[in-house]
Design brief:
With 621 residues, the protein is α+β, with helices and mostly antiparallel strands. It folds into two domains: 221 residues, Aminohydrolase, N-terminal nucleophile (Ntn) domain (Glutamine Phosphoribosylpyrophosphate, subunit 1, domain 1, 4-Layer Sandwich), CATH 3.60.20; 231 residues, HUPs (Rossmann fold, 3-Layer(aba) Sandwich), CATH 3.40.50. Helices cover 43% and strands 15% of the residues. The chain has 24 helices and 18 strands. The strands form three sheets. Strands 4, 5, 6, 7, 11, 12 and 13 form a seven-stranded antiparallel beta sheet that branches. A six-stranded antiparallel beta sheet has the order 2-3-1-9-8-10. A five-stranded parallel beta sheet has the order 16-15-14-17-18, sandwiched between helices. β4 and β5 form a beta hairpin. It is globular and about 65 Å long.
Length: 621
């Protein structure tokens, strides 16, 4: 994992090189956490670029940007190209390699294949290729949008960066808050909202070219819909799908273990992370396993299962105690910590999951400082039938799961079209869905979840890990696995996907010690089920008074202090105040912080809160 940022002007950059270098340094400072090990610059009068590196592959020789032999093609890559060794072996006879870096394989493959090289890359990446002879820039993002990339067109210039805050550090970046992104926060029509008018997130599976006569418009190079089953597909037995998935998953895990530094795994005790651990052990790789310990995971036996798996497989085991009641005191959570999360996550919103994930990464960084890579189970639920058991009713059938998905999916489509839910319900009464809609409903859900992953899960996993200089990897989102699951015909979904049957079958083969019928457990849902709402309310109590003094005094605030004060008194003094009331106030506070960040970023660095070392403690049982 790394980060890059810069500026392109085909007619030639303005100002002298020293001025441009100062701008690059400011942009690079915002990327220092995701690239703490090295900083490099490039400026040829047309393209100016800063690259911040987290050294994972070829620690000594993999410094970027990298060039081809003739030094007319430059490449930078944020992320990892997992099949770089295969590419290197195919190209070795025709090219000279100066390093073992995975990024160098990309520049030589581009020499031979141009933009078509994207189809051959297996990995998570946001990459840049600059052709100095043709003055032509390519920006591209991996299929599922695992690694981020932002850009803004400012006159005849293109600004770009791996993170929004790095883009905002450029003095000419647009910074007007876009309320439309907040109002459309339930819509999936945009998988990469930036909340800034004039700044765009390049979607996953898209690339952008700027050159002579090419005006930097995104182009789609991968869509999951292209892999849905067609009328000419050859029928396959369910056992064939299971076997093929197992072979690909085994290969994916081994590719994701590629690293010249220590690797960790978030081992929850659930089926996904346990399966990853078992497959990693099969390859002989040492892992550090980290488990969140709190009342609900203890009561459900997840902690016991996680420890059992780690000990059985011979991995180092690091359980960390999360106590919701004392968490805020232990973290010394204050206004600075809230501001830090808005800065790190780059969203005008607040979510406790982001805080929990960030603190887990901070604990990893403190416990094993040399560890820079962590494997996550993200993506198994989204494409292999996760949540189908919990969403099913008493009969727990696949058909009932699809029936519950159908109105949800229609409501989501209407949100994108601007149709109110109540109007859609009235339309449903007159125009019911066709009777044969259910068999392909899960395919439509796959397409929706591809966008959802980019907008939520992958985005916050990237930000919370990179804020601590850790690269998060997601073996279940190898594009070969996603494409295979997308190709399964609807009539086989119940057998393969209900309760993640295809995943559970892999677990039975790789980890026979694990109970196959283990159910998913929610974090922090103990006692009255109020742990999460109470924690949110306590954050408001701790932070709002200081927030009011800093953000609601003066004439530049967009919120009425009187109205927010009334809201605060309602939350803290009225037992009938709802959790949604608390969420609304937290979002208002986050919006004010985000707007201030956008306005002041060129002059400011990271807020001081939530830096290493972690105050969390190991759990001793």
């Amino acid at each position: 994992m790394c980060g890059f940022a810069g500026e392109l002007r085909l007619a030639g950059l303005e100002g002298d090189e020293n001025e441009r270098r100062d701008v690059l340094r400011a942009m690079g400072r915002q990327l220092a956490r995701r690239g703490p090990d090295d900083e490099q610059f490039h400026d040829d009068g047309y393209l100016s670029l800063v690259f911040r590196r987290l050294s994972v592959i070829d620690v000594e020789g993999g410094r970027q940007p990298l060039w081809n032999e003739e030094r007319n093609l430059l490449v930078t890559v944020n992320g990892e190209i997992y099949n770089h060794a295969d590419i290197r072996s195919r190209l070795r006879d025709r090219h000279r390699f100066a390093s073992q870096s995975d990024a160098e394989a990309a520049v030589h493959l581009f020499e031979e294949r141009g933009e078509a090289m994207l189809d051959e890359l297996n990995g998570m990446f946001a990459l840049l290729v600059w052709d100095t002879r043709r003055r032509r820039l390519l920006l591209a993002r991996d299929r599922l949008g695992i690694k981020p990339l932002f850009y803004a067109r400012v006159g005849d210039r293109l600004l770009f960066a791996s993170e929004l805050k790095a883009l905002l550090a450029h003095p000419d970046c647009p910074r007007e808050f876009d309320w439309r992104d907040v109002e459309g926060s339930d819509s999936m029509s945009c998988s990469n909202p930036t909340y800034i008018r004039g700044v765009e997130g390049l979607p996953g599976g898209h690339c952008l070219v700027m050159g002579e006569g090419e005006c930097a418009e995104p182009r789609c190079w991968w869509r999951i819909e292209e892999h849905f089953p067609g009328p000419g597909d050859v029928a396959r037995r369910s056992s064939d799908w299971i076997d093929t998935y197992g072979e690909l998953l085994h290969d994916s895990v081994h590719r994701h273990l590629m690293s010249d530094v220590p690797v960790g795994l978030f081992l929850s005790g659930g089926i996904d992370s346990t399966l990853l651990a078992a497959l990693a052990a099969d390859g002989g790789r040492d892992l550090h396993c980290f488990t969140v310990v709190e009342d609900s995971t203890l009561d459900a036996g997840d902690v016991e299962q996680a420890e059992r798996a780690a000990r059985h497989l011979g991995f180092a085991y690091h359980p960390v105690r999360y106590d919701p009641a004392g968490l805020l005191d232990r973290l010394d959570f204050n206004l600075g910590a809230f501001e830090y999360l808005v800065w790190a996550l780059e969203r005008p919103a607040f979510n406790l999951e982001w805080l929990f994930k960030h603190e887990l990464h901070r604990y990893v960084r403190t416990r094993v400082p040399e560890l820079k890579v962590v494997l996550l189970g993200q993506g198994a639920d989204e494409f292999a039938g996760g949540y189908s058991q919990s969403m099913g009713r008493e009969e727990q059938t696949w058909r009932m799961y699809l029936q519950r998905l159908r109105p949800l999916h229609r409501d989501l489509r209407r949100m994108d079209a601007g149709i109110p839910t109540w109007m859609g319900q009235a339309l449903d009464d007159r125009y019911p869905p066709p009777a044969d809609e259910a068999p392909s409903e899960f395919h439509r859900q796959m397409a929706f979840r591809t966008a959802f992953l980019q907008r939520y899960n992958l985005w916050h996993e990237d930000r919370t890990s990179s804020a601590q200089g850790i690269e998060a990897r997601v073996p279940f989102l190898d594009h070969r696995l996603v494409e295979l699951l997308a190709a399964v015909p609807g009539e086989q979904h119940a057998e393969l996907f209900f309760d993640k049957a295809i995943i559970r079958e892999q677990l039975a083969r790789a980890a026979p010690f694990y109970p196959r019928d283990k159910l998913k457990v929610r974090f922090f849902e103990t006692g009255r089920g109020r742990s999460i709402p109470d924690l949110r309310r306590n954050i408001v109590r701790r932070v709002y008074p200081d927030f009011r003094e800093k953000y609601l005094c003066g004439d530049k605030t967009v919120f009425s202090a009187e109205r927010l004060d009334l809201h605060f008194r309602h939350i803290t003094g009225n037992p009938q105040a709802t959790d949604q009331d608390v969420r609304d106030l937290l979002q208002s506070m986050a919006i004010a912080m985000f707007m201030r960040m956008c306005a002041s970023l060129p002059e400011t660095g990271p807020p001081p809160g939530l830096n290493p070392p972690s105050p969390l403690q190991a759990w001793s049982g």
